[in-house]
């Protein structure tokens, strides 16, 4: 299973479509601030949440599960992700999730904490505190997951990311 995780595309629908086509994932997670009409989001298997800049009526948070792995998805602004990952980790634990995907800070982040893998894919439009726009891919590898970060042109970034036990 391969999951594409993006956030904070801020109206760059064509770029998002190019990334989705290039990656060819089994599922796409958009962590909010897509800032377009919902119909401009990718078709297919998609989990999307509303960010603080979105006007479309989509859920504030969602869970998605595949292959026995549960994901909690939120934009992150309601969980103070710019200051600490603990509130979103606690909310993911409450939801019974092993992976928490979020955005808002525009900064890529990947860390396992308290049994929850925390993933912020960064922003494909406007990075902050990081030199390039980014997205992440999660691949299920038996009892592990591998998280890999990429520039929007598809070039692999060596940090953050890694392989984590489930």
UniProtKB/TrEMBL annotation:
Keyword presence, Cytoplasm: no
Principal EC category: hydrolase
Cleavable signal peptide: none
Coiled-coil spans in chain: none
SUPFAM superfamilies attached to this UniProt entry: Metallo-dependent phosphatases
Transmembrane segments: none
Annotated keywords: Metal-binding
Residue ranges of every copy of the Calcineurin-like phosphoesterase domain listed in the record: 1-140
Annotated EC: 3.1.4.-
One family name in Pfam for this protein: Metallophos_2
Annotated family: Belongs to the metallophosphoesterase superfamily. YfcE family.
UniProt name for this protein: Phosphoesterase
